[in-house]
Specification:
Helices cover 8% and strands 47% of the residues. It is mostly beta strands and 274 residues long. Strands 3, 4, 6, 7 and 8 form a five-stranded antiparallel beta sheet that branches. β19 and β20 form a beta hairpin. The protein starts with a helix and ends with a strand.
């Protein structure tokens, strides 16, 4: 009899604990991880703006938009927008440049924010006038800017191409998106900008204006090896131009030093066209 009484007390205690638990405030249920953002695409572009949009999602708080100058990143968050929007207009951009975007959805707020999976990278470019160029030496054309990407084809020295816009690889080195023909087929790809010579500046002459002399470098960037230093007033022959990793214009020049002709890249701002 005593055993039955204890059993009944135990049952009553469990039932009481159950009802008390129901009455207590319940902790917030962990937010579910949003799905990957899909159908990211480029819309209207101008010389200084790019519009992007994507497929909307339900049950989320908003979207985070990331951008990079390189396909391989790093990507930086530039905007957070509410769930009611699935489009974004990126303003104040540089003309003739390729940008890369990734978007992800998120739920919650502050420390409770749960982010979803990134969309696939989207490449989009601002408008500019395309220009013709020649390949300086035999070079590989790649699927994206960077030597880590697959080779589409190899173009011989002197091959004619059309420069569509500029881009960067992950290290910041300047590349050009180009179009070219193989047989009757038109193709697109990327080559390093310093391997191209534009026709507009071929065989022009210039004079070095840098007061302390001008470094002639192996490639179109300030960290490239120095071939020689040209004193102020030196006359040079301009063979072509390229956009450097500093996004500035560089000239491919030749200059006579004694019996030798030296070729290299020099910052265009220190050369006056004569």
């Amino acid at each position: 009899m005593k055993l039955n009484l204890n059993f009944k007390k135990c049952i009553y205690s469990l039932l009481l604990l159950f009802f008390i638990t129901l009455c207590l405030p319940q902790p917030a249920v962990a937010a579910r991880k949003p799905a990957m953002v899909k159908k990211l695409k480029c819309g209207v572009t101008t010389a200084n703006s790019i519009n992007i949009s994507w497929a909307s999602q339900n049950g989320i708080t908003g979207y985070q938009i990331f951008r990079s100058l390189s396909y391989d990143g790093p990507y930086e968050k530039i905007k957070e927008i509410s769930a009611g929007n699935n489009a974004f207009c990126n303003l104040k951009l540089q003309s003739g440049r390729e940008y890369y975007y990734r978007v992800r959805a998120y739920t919650g707020k502050g420390r409770r924010t749960v982010t979803g999976y990134f969309s696939k990278p989207l490449s989009a470019r601002t408008r500019c006038n395309s220009r013709s160029a020649n390949v300086r030496s035999s070079t590989n054309v790649r699927k994206h800017a960077g030597t880590n990407h697959p080779v589409i084809t190899t173009l011989n020295a002197g091959s004619k191409v059309t420069v569509i816009c500029t881009a960067n690889d992950k290290s910041g080195t300047a590349w050009s998106r180009i179009s070219f023909k193989i047989g009757n087929k038109k193709k697109n790809g990327y080559v390093r900008s310093d391997l191209l010579s534009t026709g507009q500046t071929q065989k022009q002459t210039g004079i070095v204006t840098a007061g302390s002399g001008l470094h002639l470098r192996r490639m179109a960037n300030a960290s490239s090896g120095i071939i020689t230093t040209l004193p102020r007033g030196t006359k040079v022959t301009i063979l072509g131009q390229a956009t450097g990793s500093d996004r500035q214009k560089w000239y491919l020049v030749s200059v006579k030093q004694g019996r030798k002709t030296v070729k290299g890249y020099a910052a265009a701002r220190y050369i006056r066209i004569s």
